[in-house]
Design brief:
Strand content: under 5%
Radius of gyration: 25 Å
Distance between the termini: 50 Å
Structural class: mainly alpha
Helix content: over 70%
Number of helices: 15
Number of strands: 0
Length: 416
């Protein structure tokens, strides 16, 4: 027998190693493409929201005033808290487009910036870290310069000087995102400077909280590209389950409840109206939003925070007990949180929003992409659930949480 073409053991091992390396590269390439799809589709979704719901005429008039040196003529936004969301979407759409073009221009002028220090952040804490950083940056660049200093009678006439100074310092600090000191040319932070101008307009029009949300929303689009899970057959099954099973439930709900009307009421957030909602109203809105939001973000190929490892099967009764115990604990925590927040505010929407932010920041994440999924999906759903838990009596809260928990658990089981 001719052994001339037989591989030695070491050659076989080396060949296998090369095959594994090639497979890993292919997998990474697919994950990178999926990350870009998450980012681009998220941007497209904001474009749709902005196109259909944002008051473009007013926004363009205001921006024209702001960039022509007449910021003092901009009237404060007379919108309810959640009604500002389409306007924030419109600002992010414009800001990101111009910032990305500025980034491309900078790369053409001075080349690639190399490794970014943000890549070294731990994924499980990225949402908390980013939130703290964004709040600190907005307090410094917007509130301190455009709020605190601009309120001084001796400095009030120098609004645009303060704007350029605060925004310029804020943009300059971003040079230290580049790990290589030789790559820290000023033109690299032109995107941040442009973004800061739009954030400053939001601050003038709507105040600090809207500015923080705009800034974080912009970052959420960009960080969506950084994912580490590949979209596999399990995700496809989950998507089909959400479409088929969720679609059937939505049809049943929508035949009995005016979901669009409930959604509009929640966005306008008139406390007197919402305090008269029943358990069925909260349930219908939550489940409808759950299916729509999760279907969209599963289609966008966002990472999940849940483990993909196989776990031991749990019988239905045990799951029911776990859901009921979790429901009681959640209600107890909401009662304590609501009591604590009552010392600072009696506003229902602020209690719900602050409770939501606290919960969201406690979640650990498997990737920046998964963290951004939490931002886009958990905040609106938690706003609805916390509002329900603050308003409804204990028995209704228990029913609300158990039914919602069972539906979510059923979706997860079918998708396995």
């Amino acid at each position: 027998m001719d052994n001339r073409y037989k591989k030695t053991p070491s050659e076989t091992i080396n060949s296998r190693i090369e095959e594994i390396k090639k497979a890993i590269k292919i997998k990474k390439a697919f994950i990178a493409l999926e990350g870009w799809w998450s980012m681009i589709s998220s941007y497209a979704l904001l474009c749709i929201i902005a196109y259909y719901f944002a008051p473009w005429k007013e926004i363009i008039i205001d921006l024209r005033l702001f960039f022509s040196g007449n910021a003092q003529d901009i009237l404060p936004g007379n919108f309810k808290f959640l009604e500002v969301v389409p306007i924030i979407a419109a600002i992010i759409v414009m800001e990101l487009l111009l910032s990305i073009l500025a980034g491309i221009f900078g790369s053409i002028c001075v080349g690639n910036g190399g490794r970014n220090a943000l890549k070294s952040m731990k994924p499980n804490n990225i949402l908390k870290t980013l939130f703290i950083v964004v709040v600190a940056e907005e307090l410094f660049a917007r509130w301190f310069f455009l709020g605190f200093m601009a309120s001084d009678p001796n400095l009030g006439n120098y609004f645009y000087v303060l704007l350029i100074a605060g925004n310029g310092i804020w943009a300059w600090v971003h040079l230290y995102n580049y790990e290589d000191p030789n790559k820290r040319q000023l033109i690299r932070v032109l995107p941040q400077f442009i973004a800061g101008l739009f954030f400053s307009y939001v601050y003038v029009k709507f105040g600090l909280m809207a500015t923080i949300l705009t800034h974080f929303g912009s970052n959420a689009i960009l960080f969506a590209s950084d994912k580490n899970q590949i979209w596999d057959k399990k995700e496809l099954r989950r998507l089909l389950t959400l479409v088929v099973f969720g679609g059937a439930i939505l049809i049943l709900i929508w035949l009995q409840v005016d979901i669009i009307g409930l959604f509009k009421q929640f966005v306008q957030f008139d406390e007197k109206t919402i305090r008269n909602w029943t358990t069925n109203d909260f349930f219908a809105l939550y489940i409808s939003m759950y299916f729509v939001i999760n279907t969209v973000f599963t289609f966008m190929m966002y990472d999940k925070n849940s483990s993909r490892e196989k776990k031991e099967e749990t019988v239905f009764i045990k799951k029911m007990v776990k859901i009921m115990v979790a429901a009681v604990i959640i209600i107890g925590l909401v009662v304590i949180l609501n009591w604590g927040l009552s010392f600072f505010t009696n506003s229902l929407i602020w209690k719900s929003f602050i409770s939501t932010i606290i919960v969201v920041l406690l979640i650990k994440h498997k990737s920046p992409n998964a963290a951004m999924r939490t931002f886009w999906t958990t905040i609106p759903l938690s706003m609805v659930s916390f509002t329900a838990l603050i308003i409804l009596p204990f028995s209704s809260c228990l029913v609300f949480l158990i039914v919602c928990g069972l539906i979510v658990e059923t979706i997860n089981e079918i998708a396995k």
